[in-house]
């Protein structure tokens, strides 16, 4: 990472938003009402570097998991994999940023997390039989938890995206400026 990137006010504020989201994960909250998916979506949508879009939110999640504890190797791999997919949704948002697209990406991220992580629970074979009925039961039993997941994802998505939009409005230095391309004429 270049020194100019680290000293860039936009980069510092973006990292600050991610750190604040992680802090929200560490304070008491209703079950599954966390900023994780919103943090991944936000990182993907706003970091100019694709590498940083993945590294910073994943590193933030890793640090908070070191404090909170991990869910077990297989479960953790599925959780981080779904998190990486949500970063990809954020990367898509870089060129499609609108309230509708952000909301749709947040809902898609919630559904993605739900499908992947509950498949992981089922695939361990500890709670549900490794049959199609067992898989359906796994998803059905997880529905009550999904309400908080979706609510948390929407709330924190609004907080992160809305908060950064306000920051950009009041502090124009936070806006991403594209460098004009010059064309040589022959």
Explain this structure.
The protein is an all-alpha fold and 186 residues long. It has a single domain (3-174), classed as Arp2/3 complex 21 kDa subunit ARPC3 (Orthogonal Bundle), CATH 1.10.1760. Helices cover 74% and strands 0% of the residues. The chain is elongated, with a radius of gyration of 18 Å. The chain starts with a helix and ends in a 16-residue tail after the last helix. The model is unreliable at 178-186 (pLDDT under 50).
Secondary-structure topology with pairs:
Elements (H helix, E strand, L loop, with lengths): L2 H5 L1 H18 L9 H11 L3 H19 L4 H21 L5 H25 L8 H39 L16
Number of helices: 7
Number of domains: 1
Average pLDDT reading: 86
* Main sheet record: none
Q: Could you spell the SSE succession in H and E letters? A: HHHHHHH
User: Which runs of at least 5 residues are low in confidence (pLDDT < 50)?
Assistant: 178-186
- Give me the secondary-structure category: mainly alpha
* Helical content class: over 70%
Q: β content, as a range? A: under 5%
Provide the gyration radius in Å. Answer: 18 Å
The total beta strand count reads: 0
CATH class category name = Mainly Alpha
């Amino acid at each position: 990472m270049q020194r100019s990137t680290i000293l860039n006010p936009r980069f510092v504020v973006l990292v600050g938003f991610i750190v604040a989201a992680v802090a929200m994960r560490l304070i008491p909250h209703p079950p599954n009402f966390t900023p994780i998916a919103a943090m991944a979506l936000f990182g993907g949508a706003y970091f100019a570097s694709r590498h940083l879009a993945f590294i910073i939110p994943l590193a933030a999640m890793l640090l908070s998991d070191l404090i909170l504890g991990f869910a077990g190797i297989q479960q953790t791999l599925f959780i981080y994999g779904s998190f990486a997919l949500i970063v990809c949704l954020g990367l898509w948002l870089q060129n499609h940023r609108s309230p509708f697209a952000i909301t749709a990406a947040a809902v898609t991220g919630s559904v993605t997390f739900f499908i992947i992580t509950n498949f992981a629970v089922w695939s361990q074979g500890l709670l549900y039989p490794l049959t199609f009925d067992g898989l359906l039961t796994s998803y059905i039993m997880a529905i009550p938890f999904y309400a908080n997941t979706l609510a948390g994802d929407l709330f924190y998505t609004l907080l992160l995206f809305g908060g950064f939009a306000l920051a950009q409005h009041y502090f124009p230095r936070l806006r991403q400026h594209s460098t004009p391309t010059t064309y040589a004429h022959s």
